[in-house]
Amino acid sequence: MPRQPAVKKPAMTKIFVLDTNVLMHDPSCLYRFEEHDVFLPIMTLEELDNHKKGMSEIARNARQASRTLDEMLAHDDVDIDEGIDLYGPSSKLASGRLYLQTEAISAELPQGLPTSKVDNQILSVVIHLQKKFPKRPVILVSKDINMRIKSRALNLLAEDYFNDKVLEDTDILYSGTRALPENFWDKHGKGMESWKKDSKTYYKVTGPLCPQFLVNEFVWLEKDGFTAIVKETAGKTAVLETLIDYTHPKNAVWGITARNREQNFALNLLLNPDIDFVTLLGQAGTGKTLLTLAAGLTQTLESKQFAEIIMTRVTVPVGEDIGFLPGSEEEKMAPWMGALEDNLEVLTHTDDNSPYGGDWGKAATHDIIRSKIKVKSLNFMRGRTFLKKYLIIDEAQNLTPKQMKTLVTRAGPGTKVVCLGNIAQIDTPYLTEGSSGLTYVVDRFKGWTHSGHITLQRGERSRLADHAADVL
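^ that's the sequence the OP posted. Answer follows.
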């Protein structure tokens, strides 16, 4: 057979020089640069070696990155000087080559920059490559902002690592609700079918807006107070289902009624047995934890749908850490669960005129409720499976996409997972609004039949809290 002509690479493929923090952030980053070449300075490998000890996420990622490199270099036919072809190891994701630094490089650095510093040695590698390949863009990829500023000051190209970012702008994050135009029924009501089933009314509408609808998205009309959830979509037709009105006292959930439209939407998701995964976003005081607990207690103690409530959260302190905490897992987690205690106080508040009122009644109610709520640490979640549990993940904005996957995949049969958070309050050092695990799941789960999402808008805590959230 005649030999196939070699595919010529485009002349302008870039060379990406990787800083250590990129490998420690995403061990599979070597496969994320498509047709471009990747260069690893020797100091990157040195730093990777220094960080591989320990049980932290960074140490795990450093070890994983080292293993990935080892697998690539294990083949006998690999010539390091010629570069390692990434097409095979990356399962056809990348078509560039990986180069390792095989020679001592001593490029000229401006006076005053100490050559003993690792960052500066990586910068000297970038300068060397720029001189060696004058026609190709040489770009430093680093998660370190100061490193990027320094490289730009030296007239070098530098970029952040963007591959793990779900969204560039969190303003376009799916909100779970859609305001319908005032002429909605005029444009979509022609040939409409309507029927009733289990005290709910269904509307089958056809029109230009229907292809934009997502399953389990809430739609509403301001003028006549119409609210519904999208149950099915198929081309230009959609089926809308009316909601249970939880703003009415007769539909109170554990004594709690919805105070606004979004809270009503949230309770419809939390109390729907067909929905296994719920995400609630919103600033402080919008009622995320209170609604979730009220719905959880109703389904655990009254309808017996779940065996117990499990609550967990990331333990990232806002101020200085207070050192080791004494006691069992539950006791160590107690200081982190102030939000749980505050909300339980509201939910167990019994009327003084009721026959079950008074201190005895309150104490008994509180004990029964506490026996059904378990507080667990994230550190011991791996390998577990939860059966018929109502799992609440509080402060979920501080989770990485990988940690979020670890938690959500714990769900066994009959388990409901609820993620709560405010992406404007991220305390984890290396996470941004665009790369948070909460943003990740909201974006990936939208439109799935058994999941729902609501962004709560209005604060209901107090006029002081609402004003502070706006002006501070």
